[in-house]
């Protein structure tokens, strides 16, 4: 498995996963726009031509927001998400960022446990953040020194 920066060739597979795993998926156009966004950083875990997972962020003034993280169902619990987040933090550090924030559904216990294992802490709650179904989000934060 390799971790690479997202390119145009990855977008069809990413959109496929978005549609499978998210109730409000991003469109192909949204991902194409991210390719030209200087604030954005998107990484993919690949084996050959197959995208196993992806993570994206946007950074402003040293603070990054994790946009999406997904791993193919058949590749979960194999360290793919961990490697993606670790590389994301490394790449963000190289861009002089030292804070990574995210939102996660309050009902998503496995994701919360994963983020806590990765060093994130809960710092707040956003009421009715998610749609389809409507649900609150925990705000989680990870900080590191550059």
Structural features, described:
- This protein has 146 residues and is α+β, with helices and mostly antiparallel strands.
- The protein has a single domain, classed as 3-Layer(aba) Sandwich (Aminopeptidase), CATH 3.40.630.
- Helices cover 29% and strands 40% of the residues.
- A seven-stranded mixed beta sheet has the order 1-2-3-4-5-7-6, sandwiched between helices.
- Strand 2 and strand 3 form a beta hairpin.
- The chain is globular, with a radius of gyration of 15 Å.
- It starts with a strand and ends with a strand.
- The mean pLDDT is 96.
What's a concise summary of this model?
With 146 residues, this protein is α+β, with helices and mostly antiparallel strands. It is built from four helices and seven strands. It has one domain: Gcn5-related N-acetyltransferase (GNAT) (Aminopeptidase, 3-Layer(aba) Sandwich).
* Strand-residue proportion: 35-45%
CATH fold name, please?
Aminopeptidase
Please state the average pLDDT score. 96
Could you describe the largest sheet, including whether it forms a barrel? 7 strands, mixed
**Which regions have little confidence, pLDDT < 50, spanning 5+ residues?**
none
What would CATH call the class? Alpha Beta
Using only C-alpha atoms, the radius of gyration works out to 15 Å
Name of the CATH superfamily: Gcn5-related N-acetyltransferase (GNAT)
**Span between N and C termini?**
27 Å
Q: Count the strands?
A: 7
Structural class by helix and strand composition: alpha+beta
Reported CATH architecture: 3-Layer(aba) Sandwich
The amount of helix comes to 25-40%
Number of DSSP helical runs: 4
What's the domain count? 1
Q: Strand order, main sheet: write it out.
A: 1-2-3-4-5-7-6
């Amino acid at each position: 498995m390799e971790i690479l920066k997202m390119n145009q060739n990855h977008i069809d597979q990413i959109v496929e996963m978005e549609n499978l795993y998210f109730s409000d998926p991003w469109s192909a156009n949204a991902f194409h726009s991210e390719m030209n966004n200087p604030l954005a950083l998107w990484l993919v875990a690949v084996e050959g031509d197959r995208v196993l997972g992806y993570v994206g962020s946007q950074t402003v003034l040293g603070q990054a927001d994790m946009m999406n993280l997904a791993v193919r169902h058949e590749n979960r619990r194999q360290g793919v998400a961990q490697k993606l987040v670790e590389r994301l933090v490394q790449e963000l550090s190289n861009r002089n960022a030292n804070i990574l924030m995210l939102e996660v559904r309050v009902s998503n216990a496995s994701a919360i446990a994963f983020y806590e294992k990765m060093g994130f802490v809960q710092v707040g709650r956003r009421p009715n953040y998610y749609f389809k179904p409507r649900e609150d989000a925990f705000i989680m934060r990870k900080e590191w020194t550059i």
